[in-house]
Amino acid sequence: IPYVRSPQELASVRRIVAAEELFESPSFKFWIMIELPVNVILLSDFIKVGIDGVSVGSNDLTMLILGTDRDNSEVAEAFNERSPAVKWALKRVVRLCHKHGITSSICGQAPSTYDDLVEELVKMGITSISVNPDAINRVRGVIAETEKKIVK
What is the CATH number of the domain that holds 54? Predict the structure, then answer.
């Protein structure tokens, strides 16, 4: 579910999904996108509503945390998916997902572009990383090398 602004809004969506009997399917998973700073700040409350996982939308989350826009030339230079503020948010999300036993994932341009960020995400313990098709082999190698370092 994208752009969920409050746990109350998520609860409303959950009621609609339940009314449509989607939860009856054992394969159905109820996830939210982490795109808004409020999703990071109130993640424990969103989890309490009842979600199976989250997917961090790195483009939107970065833009909204930093108050910038990668597509606007006047402020694009401030768009930095590896900024300390964005990394703090990613760490918080992964940590809370682990604590509550739900899946954490990331999508967007960042993991396709920055191998060092992929390495940090693996070390944080993120469950899955979604990348562009042209980055799959490279990122798969980064993940494998990072996991080897962790196991040693």
Answer: 3.20.20.60
Domain that holds residue 113: 7-151
What is the mean predicted confidence (pLDDT) over 61-87? 92
Distance between CA atoms of residues 21 and 23, nearest Å: 5
Joined together, the tokens standing for residue 20 give 């449509």
pTM over cut 0.85: yes
Number of domains in the chain: 1
Identify whether 106 is part of a domain.
Answer: yes
Based on the number of CB atoms within 10 Å of its own CB, is 25 exposed (0-12), middle (13-18) or buried (19 or more)?
Answer: exposed
The angle that helices 84-100 and 115-124 make with each other, rounded to 10 degrees, is 30
In a domain, 91, yes or no: yes
Taking 3-state DSSP, the helix, strand and coil percentages for the chain, each rounded to the nearest 5, stand at 60, 10, 30
Q: What is the pLDDT of residues 75-106, one digit of tens each?
A: 888 999 999 999 999 999 999 999 999 999 99
- The rounded distance, in Å, linking the Cα atoms of 111 and 76 is 19
Cα gap 138→148, rounded to integer Å:
16
Judged against a pLDDT cut of 90, whether residue 6 lies above it is answered with yes
